[in-house]
Design goal:
Structural class: mainly alpha
Helix content: 25-40%
Order of helices and strands: HHH
Distance between the termini: 59 Å
Radius of gyration: 25 Å
Shape: elongated
Length: 84
């Protein structure tokens, strides 16, 4: 006999699996390895896509192009520096 369940959260799934494994006549055939695998087949449980189109464009910083380039290069050097 096979049974299909729809579970809303990872915690509920883990709890159900624990209880089922305690029963001598029940065998869990395949456990999901992680949360994304467990809920990948249920599109209504996936995170909604966010619309960032309202943020596209440019901003006025009051800085010259050279100043912006200088700041970006400074940030990149800090990111790439050797920490040892």
């Amino acid at each position: 006999m096979h049974l299909t369940l729809e579970v809303k959260s990872q915690q509920e799934l883990q709890l159900i699996l624990k209880y089922l494994q305690l029963l001598p006549g029940v065998k869990v055939i395949a456990e999901p390895k992680n949360q994304s695998e467990a809920f990948s087949e249920t599109p209504d449980l996936q995170k909604p896509k966010r619309d960032f189109s309202k943020y596209w464009g440019s901003i006025q910083t009051g800085l010259a192009v050279e100043d912006i380039d200088s700041k970006l290069n400074e940030i990149r050097r800090e990111w790439d520096r050797d920490l040892s």
